Amino acid sequence: MSAIAAPDAAFLIHGLGGTQYDLGSMHKRLKNAGLVTYSLTLPGHGTKPEDLATVAMEDWVDAVVSKYREIRDQHPVLHLMGMCMGSLLAAVLAEREHHAKGNLIMLAAPVYIDGWATPWYRSLRPLLYVMPGLPQRMKIEEEDPFGIKNEQLRAIVKAKFERGENFHYRWVPLECLRQVDRLRAMVMKAASKIRCPTLIVHAREDELTSLRSAHFMVESIGGARARMVILEDSYHMICVDNDREIVAKNVLEFVGAALPGAGSALANEPRMSAQELTAALNAVLAKLDTGDLGGLRELAIPDLSWVQPGVNALSGVHVGKSFAGFASRFSALGNARFTAFGTPVFNRGVVLVPTQLVASNDSARLESPGALLFAFYAGKLLEARWFADQVELEDAFFGKPPAPDSTAVALDAAFVAAAVEAKTLTRAPDNATLLELYALYKQADAGDVRGDRPSVLDVVGRAKYDAWAQRKGVSRDEAMRSYVALVEKLKAQEVTA
C-alpha cells in the first residue's frame, strides 16, 4: 500500500502585541479544510508589554524564518499568511526565502500607517525615536475603537482589557513602532521581488492603515500575481469584525480549499485517495446503520450540513449547532435509521449511496427507499443530503413540523444574549465559576460530552472535560436556563460591588 501523501499546510503569523487569536477562526477554518496549520509566538509577545522594549525587527524576522525552515519540507504545499505586522513579516519571509511552494496572504498589511484614526503627529515619530531613553519608556496605548467596527464585539474587547486578560497587549513601547517602521521600509524594498501568488485583503475604513497600503502591494508584486479584496464593513481587525466571513471565504478559495455545500464540493478535488474515501464512507454508514446521527459530528467538520426533504418534524437544512437538535429528534422519532445500503457511486469527493430510511412506532412502520448524497474533503464529511423516492411516506409517519414554541424561542434568545454578556464581565469569575459557565454552555450547545478525557498533563483540558461530563444527561433547555441564571447572577454582583 502506498504511503498517504502529506497534507497541505499554512503558516499563520500574528500582529504586534497580539497572539494567534488576531486571526480569528482562520486556524479552525483551515483545519476544517484539511490543512495543517502552524503558528508561533513572536519574540517579546505572550508575556508583558515591557518585554518588547528590547526586541528588534531582526528578532521577529529570524523567528519566522527559523519556523519556516523547520516546516517547509514537511508538506507539498505551504501557504504563508499574516495579520497586520504579521503580514509584513510574511511578505519579508516570502521574498527572503524565495517562497514558491504556496501562496502569500496579507491581511490588513500596514505598509503605510496612515489610517483615519492615526494621530496628526504621526510624521513626528522619527524625532521621538532619537530622544535618549524615550522609545523604551513611552507607551503607545490601544484605544477605542480597538480596530473593531462591530459595537458588540468592541464591548467584549473593552471588557477583556478592563479585566486585564492577556489576550492582547493593551499598550506597546514606542520602540516597537520604530521597529515596525524599519520592517515597513524592508517590505517596500522587497515587495517587487515577491514571486508567489498573493492575496491582499484590506478594509476601506481601516483606522490604522489606508487602502494605499493594499494598492502599493498589488502594484509592486504585479497584477498578474497579486489579487486584492476590499472590505466595506470592518476596521483593522478584519478576521474578527463584520466582514470575517468574507475574509474566510476568500482565503479558503485562494488556497484551493473546499467550502461546505455540495456545489463547492463538486468543484473541488477531495484530497483523499480512493481507499481513504471508501474508509470515510464506511465510517459514516456505520453510524447511520445504528441510528447514531449525532455520532457523525466526530467524522465531520463543525459546520456539517444535513438536508432532510419533505414537510414533517425532521424536514429542513440542519447546519452546525442546529444539527445536534436534529440528530436527537431523528433518533427519538420511531428509532429511525438508514439501512440496506446499495453500491456507492463516486464522483470526486461526492458519493451517492442507495439506501432506505426505516422507523417504527406502536401504530406504524416506515420503509422509505431513496439515496444519500455525501460530500467529503480531506477526510471529513462536509454535507449530507437525503433524497426520498416517496417523501410523502415520511411526511405521514413523522407528522407535521411542530409549531414555533414562543417559550423555546425566548429561551434561545436569552441564552445567546447571556453568552455575549458573559464576555463583557468586568471582573473575571473564579476558576470554579468559569468551569461551571463552560460546562453549562457546552451541554446546552453540544449535548453530552464526547471524545476522550485529556491526559493528566493537560490540566486545563482535563478540568473542562470533567466539568462538562458532570452535566451528562442534563437537557438542553435546563442547561440553557442554568447558564442564563448564572450569568445574570454574576452581572448583578458587579452592579452591587
Could you list some keywords that capture this structure?
40% helix, 497 residues, alpha/beta, Nuclear Transport Factor 2, Chain: A, Acyl-CoA Binding Protein
If you had to describe this structure to a student in words, what would you say it looks like?
This protein has 497 residues and is of the alpha/beta class. The protein folds into 3 domains: 249 residues, Rossmann fold; 134 residues, Nuclear Transport Factor 2, Chain: A, CATH 3.10.450; 91 residues, Acyl-CoA Binding Protein (Up-down Bundle), CATH 1.20.80.10. Helices cover 40% and strands 18% of the residues. It contains 17 helices and 15 strands. The strands form 3 sheets. Strands 9, 10, 11, 12, 13, 14 and 15 form a 7-stranded mixed sheet that branches. The protein has a 6-stranded parallel sheet with strand order 2-1-3-4-7-8, sandwiched between helices. A two-stranded antiparallel ribbon has the order 5-6. Helix 3 packs across helix 7 and helix 14 packs across helix 17. The longest helix is centred in the C-terminal third of the chain and has 21 residues. About 1% of the residues have low confidence.
Q: Kindly report the average pLDDT value.
A: 86
What's the CATH topology name of the largest domain?
Rossmann fold
- Based on CA atoms alone, the radius of gyration comes out at 26 Å
Shape: globular
User: What is the level-2 CATH architecture name of the largest domain?
Assistant: 3-Layer(aba) Sandwich
Summarize the structure.
With 497 residues, this protein is an alpha/beta fold. It contains 17 helices and 15 strands.
